[in-house]
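stuck on this one:
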Amino acid sequence: MNEKPDIKSMNITELTEFVTALGEKPFRARQLYQWMHQKLSSSIDEMTNLPLAFRETLKRESRYISLKQVQVQVSKEDGTRKYLFLLEDGNVIESVRMRYKFGNSVCISSQAGCRMACRFCASGIGGLVRGLTPSEMLEQIYRIQEDIGERVSHVVVMGTGEPLDNYENLLQFIALLCDDKGLNIGQRNLTVSTCGIVPNMRRLAEEKLQITLALSLHAPSQAKRKELMPVAGTYDMYEVLGACQYYFEQTGRRMTFEYSLLAGVNDGDEDAKALADLLKGMNCHVNLIPVNPVTEHKFRGPEPKRVLSFKNNLEKNGINVTIRREMGRDIDAACGQLRKRYVEGR
C-alpha cells in the first residue's frame, strides 16, 4: 500500500496541519476540505481555486482516493442500484442505493471481504482482505450521489465486512460524514450493523453517538446462533445482549435486531416464542429479513405466509417488528454476490 498520507481520510485539524507543513496558508485546508467533502471532487485537478503549484504538490505528496465504478446493476422493479467499485490496490467492493419515500439510502461496505464467515452470507466467502479507509467508505457515498445527481440522506454500514472489526476507521468515517462542513448527514440517519464484537460495542456506546446500532442476531438461542455465526463462539449471546443494553443506557438509542429468516432453521413458531422471551423488556426493534439464496450455501428463505406467521407471533408477545422490504430482487441483491462473481470471473 502507498505510504503517502490519505488526505480524504483527514479531519479538518489534521488537514490544516498537513497543508501548513507544506508551506501553505491554513485557509487552503478549508478550501481543499470543501472540494473533497462538499463538492465531492473526484480529482485534485478539478480544484480550480487552488494554485496550480499547490495542486502539483498535493499530487506529489499525498494520496487522493477516488473510487472507479466498474459495474452498476439497476433493478427494473424498484430502481435499486447495486454498484461495484474498484479500489486503487485492485480490490473491489460493492454498495447499494435504495430509494424510499424519505429519500435515498446508501448501504456501504466497511471491508474488502469479511472474516466473520456467517454460514448463510456471501460476503465472507474468501475471507477478509483488509479494512477500508475512511476515504474509501466515504467515496462509496460520494460516487453514488454524483451518479444519481440527488442527495443521499441516509447511510447504512451493512454491506460487506464487519464495521466494528475496522473500528478506528469507522469512527473517523462517521465524524467526516456527519461534519457540517461535509455532507452533513445527521447521526440519527446513520445505522451501523455488527455481528456482535462485544468490546467494540461497549467502546462505541461510550462515544455516546446518536447513530443506530443494529445487531445481526439471526437466532433465538446461543446454540443455534453458534451454528450459524462463528463469532458466537467468541462472544456468548448473553454477553452480546448485555452490550446491547449498555449501548441503550449510554446513548438512549433503541437497538435494532436483524434476524435473517432461514427456512426450516430458525423460522418456526417455537423460534419466534424463544426470540420474544429473549428480547422481552428491551427497548428494541426486530427487522425480519427473508434470506436471499446464495449458491454456495444450502439456506433458503421461508414462504411469505411463514414470514408473516413469525412476525405475528413476535407482535403477540409485545415485540416491535417489521419485515424488511425486499429491494432489487431481480439483481444480485444479497451482500457480496456481485463482488464474488466479479472476482471469480477475473
Notes: The radius of gyration is 21 Å. The mean pLDDT is 94.
